[in-house]
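Complex record, two chains
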Amino acid sequence: MIQARLLRDEVISELSETWHATGALRVEHVLDEAQAAAALEALRAEAHAPELQPTADGYQLWRFPWVPEPACSHTMCAVGRSLLGEVREWVQQVTGQPLAPLGDRMLVSDMHHKGMYIEPYDDREPGRVVAFQLGLTPATWPEAWGGHLEELEGPDGAVRRTWAPAWNHLDLFDVRKPAWRRLPILREHVEGYVISGWYG
Amino acid sequence: MLDDATTLHPRFRDESLIATLHQQWKADRCMRVTELLRPGLAEELHQAALSGPFAWFERREADISVGIWRRFTNFPEPHTEIEAVISRDVPALISAVTGRELSPPDSEGVAFDRFEKGSYLDAHTDQASHRVVAWVIGLTHDSWPAEEGGHLEFLAPDGKTVVDRREPGFDTLDFYAIYPMLRWHRVPLLTTHHTRLATNGWLTGPVHDPWERT
């Protein structure tokens, strides 16, 4: 359930202009607030398992992957169907790209957790066109605490842009070309989640 | 008493050294000794500890918040002398230095803690039934600046202000009184790719006498 104001032609047009100029976009207050709040409560109840690879090119994350089921009434299946359905169709309008869910329809929730990080990575993979991240972070924190996603010029490159965790926002990234990003290590205990996936 | 401590460096059989260490202990009840073990043993323990798998260990409870890699093995693994080190000789050394008869808890094995990037041990006091001294045997070859985390920090009663700091050591023994004072300490988040390896434990003893009598 996308907020109604995002469906207006002038809003889509403005967002499309930014998308085509930069290949990246943050959309604030994307879901209906009640759905966003329900998703946060549902994620709090889901176990996010540590996935740890403490190497120079590795990561440390706490993750809950799931595939939204067509007829399931669980909140996360409903949110997932929305992301792969209505939200995807809306992103199609903004990007001007025909987009489909990837074959496995898998989504991943990453729980903000002290110690989480991702070393520089290129998010390109065959079949991926747009990466999306739905942020469900009740209260953001200073960049010095870490955990703010960085867009990089290259694997060892300068930071092009920083994306602070926030509430009910949708971040979109064009991953048809080199898309280097990094998640600096999070130094404090905070709360929040990011749901990620790709359209192809 | 330390003549039978075969895993320790032979210098600890020198009573004058023990007397010197005792004076050092009385000053702060928190100290480090280097060249802890008989020559070569620390490297053997380092290799033995890393010879098997570690698992991620995480807790977030009222008295402890930690995320580290831990390997627990039952004696005599991973080294035939590890039980003598932590259940006989280190307690004997700490007892000799503190002037107190201190005992290790009953244990069937040993836990090695490994900090990698992303590992942390938040501020805590180690307070628990009859624990009077905590100890850490350092088995870390690597070194790095304190700003990158991973160093043992002792804190003021506010639980935040750093009053002392110990960089990770190799063949070192850090030990400190944790009763009756509350000695807040932590190992801050390690933010770079280094490895801190150690094993630690506690000693129990009589708690009705103040340290000042020693």
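Note: The first helix of chain B runs from residue 15 to 28.
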